[in-house]
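Title: Prediction job returns without error message
Component: structure pipeline
Severity: low
Priority: P3
Assignee: unassigned

Description:
Job completed but the reporter wants confirmation the result is attached to the right record. Sequence as submitted:
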Amino acid sequence: MNSFHNINLLIGRILIGLYFLGLGALAKIFNYDFIYRYMLEHEVPFTHIALVLTIIIQFICSIGIIIGWHSKISAFTLALLTLIINYYMHDFWDMSSGIQQEHELQNFVKNMGIVAGLLILSATNPGKYSFKNKN
């Protein structure tokens, strides 16, 4: 791998990791009650357990991706979690036509793009600038 490839992998890992750390785990911690009520409104089963597990998974996996430690497993796990979140939280198919449905459709499609990136990352070695691992 050349330097350009390794730097791109590092920047990509940092960006997607920070997304799940900041807008994922930490945002859920600091807005726990709001997120919990929002999940209840979307009928997420075992809401409290689901929220706690989501925070833990997003925190651990985002750090793993950023530092390149078990980044393949971390990326794949976040891809699966994002699919589940998409199903429950951005269920545009259950809404009447209008701005709210369009907003949820946009979030659903955005998340599918994030899933695509995570799946690509899960199939790629983390590059030179990472903790060495064999996954």
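Comment from assignee: result matches the submitted record. Residues 3-30 form the longest helix (28 residues).
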